[in-house]
Amino acid sequence: MSYLTGEFECKLDPKSRMMIPAGLKKKLPEAETEGLVINRGFKNYLVIYTKTEWDKRLDELSKLNEYEEDNIEFIRYFTRGATELALDAAGRVLLPKFLLDYAGIKNDVVLACQLNKIEVWDAGAHKAAFSNEPQNFSALAQRVMGNKARRGDE
To answer: Which secondary structure element, helix H or strand E, spans residue 11, and what is its range?
Structure first.
């Protein structure tokens, strides 16, 4: 899978189904055959993974020591609510109500691509979260990206 980029605005239909935008669907050819997995994000948003990416996450989790309490707790919370999604004939996915409630998603949705996953936000929450861009984005970039060792260049 290539990296995912872009933001897409969507609407849920009355049955909580969401049409995967055509531009995004083209970037997810395996979605129709393998399906997708949706789960809670670390804040009030959801995350969609391809099945392949989700399996990579589970592989990482399976390597944690299951006798350490923090590991057990993290695995429980990270996997809690994970649900497989299948595209219907019209290219829609049914989003579970309990996950929509968790993220405060009502009707208008923003799909924000983040490299190998897609964040699913309530449109109002997305606007509020990203209207507070850091005053000095350059300084943030330097802190995060400035250390070559973090990028694996060494």
So the answer is: strand 7-11
Angle between helix 69-79 and 51-62 (nearest 10): 170
Helix (H) or strand (E) holding 36: strand 36-40
Q: Which two tokens stand for residue 43?
A: 């804040």
Predicted TM-score (pTM) of the model is 0.88
Give the closest residue to 116 by CA, choosing from 64, 26, 76, 56: 56
Count how many residues are written for the chain: 154
Q: Which residues of 12-42 are buried (b: 16+ CB within 10 A; e: fewer)?
A: beeebebbbeeebeebbeebeebebbbbbbe
Per residue in 62-113, pLDDT tens? 999 999 999 999 999 999 999 999 999 898 999 999 999 999 999 999 999 9
* DSSP state letters, 78-143: HHTT-EEE---TTSEEEPPHHHHHHHT--SEEEEEEEBTEEEEEEHHHHHHHHSS--TTHHHHHHH
